[in-house]
Amino acid sequence: MREILNKLYNTHDLEMDELVYLIENADTTIINDIKDHAKALTLSIYGNKIYIRALLEFSNYCKRNCMYCGLRNDNEEVDRFRLTKNQIIESIGKAYDFGYRSFVMQSGEDEFYTKDLLSDIIITLKENFKGIAITLSIGERSFEEYKEFKIAGADRFLLRHETADQKQYEKLHPDMSFEERKRCLYDLKALDYQVGAGFLVGLPNSNPTIMAKNLIFLKNLEPHMVGIGPLIIHKDTPLKNYKDGSVEDTLFYISLTRLFLPKAMIPVTTAVNTLDKKGLEKGIDSGGNVLMLNLSPQELKEKYELYKNRETKSVYDLEKVAERLENIGYQAYIKRGDHIDWSKEEEGK
Ligand code: 5AD
Ligand code: SF4
């Protein structure tokens, strides 16, 4: 075991069999050692800044039917909404005036936002609000669409791979394929986006081999961001009788991901904060360095119900968040905050 850990700490890579052995045999002492190394590594690269992203959930319409997700198309209990171009510009503008420069625009897979409409929104945002970074999180699209959005000014794209096991992926995502998911992620990389992938912890039939596959998939893809969250059961989905994923396991995979991809931007996800009141502190202690705060009005936030009791903090509660960060020796950073390998040009503006 010691040999495997040293290899992980020194080379930031492991073979499949070593990783499976580690996941199967990591006791509390080992887990804590891994966490300490992950936290120190994060500090050595990004210092004590926690990068804050302002998240706008602009549509909860979705054509997909992911088995775990409350927004799935078949769920008729959802009160669906879409924001207009003006509403999007208004809410981002308000947060811009507050000081935020990094925005995530998230929605279900909603074809209402065509290539032209979404490009137009992105162009207008970039014109009106100088120095912002726009991250899209809108699901699978064609290469051509991704290209248009990039030309329009989108900087980053989040598309979790959810699980790197093809069989598990296809069971949980009816009418979707893992091949197509990979196509999207590699297209986004080829188009020079800062790309975010990531996976769910505690999916049905997961095992150490599948979790090791997730890490090796990430190592090969080399995304700039990795979102990792526990599964949280939603009562109006086919997984309603299943159980939540574990926060402890999620923190362990945040640490392993940090050690595999030292420079990645890794959020302490909303799902972690939902299941654990001290999720923020624990996530940072495990190697997380990003936090997303919500900029939607309360009534719309409630309609964006991926899972129950989603604990979303508002961008306008920054003071409270900053205080929690200060208490553990960290600072909230609300500017663009690019991946360290990315052009530094935008930063100083
Ligand atoms: N529990 C946890 N995470 C979920 N997501 C969707 N539904 C759930 C759930 N029930 C995650 C998916 C998706 C992201 C936007 O939300 O990983 O990529
Ligand atoms: Fe749609 Fe995303 Fe939910 Fe899947 S996880 S049903 S793509 S909103």
TrEMBL record:
<dbReference type="InterPro" id="IPR058240">
    <property type="entry name" value="rSAM_sf"/>
</dbReference>
<keyword id="KW-0408">Iron</keyword>
<keyword id="KW-0949">S-adenosyl-L-methionine</keyword>
<dbReference type="GO" id="GO:0046872">
    <property type="term" value="F:metal ion binding"/>
</dbReference>
<keyword id="KW-0479">Metal-binding</keyword>
<feature type="binding site">
    <location>
        <position position="162"/>
    </location>
    <ligand>
        <name>S-adenosyl-L-methionine</name>
    </ligand>
</feature>
<dbReference type="InterPro" id="IPR034422">
    <property type="entry name" value="HydE/PylB-like"/>
</dbReference>
<dbReference type="InterPro" id="IPR024021">
    <property type="entry name" value="FeFe-hyd_HydE_rSAM"/>
</dbReference>
<feature type="binding site">
    <location>
        <position position="69"/>
    </location>
    <ligand>
        <name>[4Fe-4S] cluster</name>
    </ligand>
</feature>
<feature type="binding site">
    <location>
        <position position="66"/>
    </location>
    <ligand>
        <name>[4Fe-4S] cluster</name>
    </ligand>
</feature>
<dbReference type="Pfam" id="PF04055">
    <property type="entry name" value="Radical_SAM"/>
</dbReference>
<feature type="binding site">
    <location>
        <position position="181"/>
    </location>
    <ligand>
        <name>S-adenosyl-L-methionine</name>
    </ligand>
</feature>
<feature type="domain" description="Radical SAM core">
    <location>
        <begin position="48"/>
        <end position="269"/>
    </location>
</feature>
<feature type="binding site">
    <location>
        <position position="62"/>
    </location>
    <ligand>
        <name>[4Fe-4S] cluster</name>
    </ligand>
</feature>
<keyword id="KW-0411">Iron-sulfur</keyword>
<dbReference type="GO" id="GO:0051539">
    <property type="term" value="F:4 iron, 4 sulfur cluster binding"/>
</dbReference>
<dbReference type="InterPro" id="IPR013785">
    <property type="entry name" value="Aldolase_TIM"/>
</dbReference>
<dbReference type="GO" id="GO:0044272">
    <property type="term" value="P:sulfur compound biosynthetic process"/>
</dbReference>
<dbReference type="GO" id="GO:0042364">
    <property type="term" value="P:water-soluble vitamin biosynthetic process"/>
</dbReference>
<keyword id="KW-0004">4Fe-4S</keyword>
<protein>
    <submittedName>
        <fullName>[FeFe] hydrogenase H-cluster radical SAM maturase HydE</fullName>
    </submittedName>
</protein>
<dbReference type="InterPro" id="IPR007197">
    <property type="entry name" value="rSAM"/>
</dbReference>
<dbReference type="InterPro" id="IPR010722">
    <property type="entry name" value="BATS_dom"/>
</dbReference>
<dbReference type="InterPro" id="IPR006638">
    <property type="entry name" value="Elp3/MiaA/NifB-like_rSAM"/>
</dbReference>
<dbReference type="GO" id="GO:0016740">
    <property type="term" value="F:transferase activity"/>
</dbReference>
<feature type="binding site">
    <location>
        <position position="137"/>
    </location>
    <ligand>
        <name>(3R)-3-methyl-D-ornithine</name>
    </ligand>
</feature>
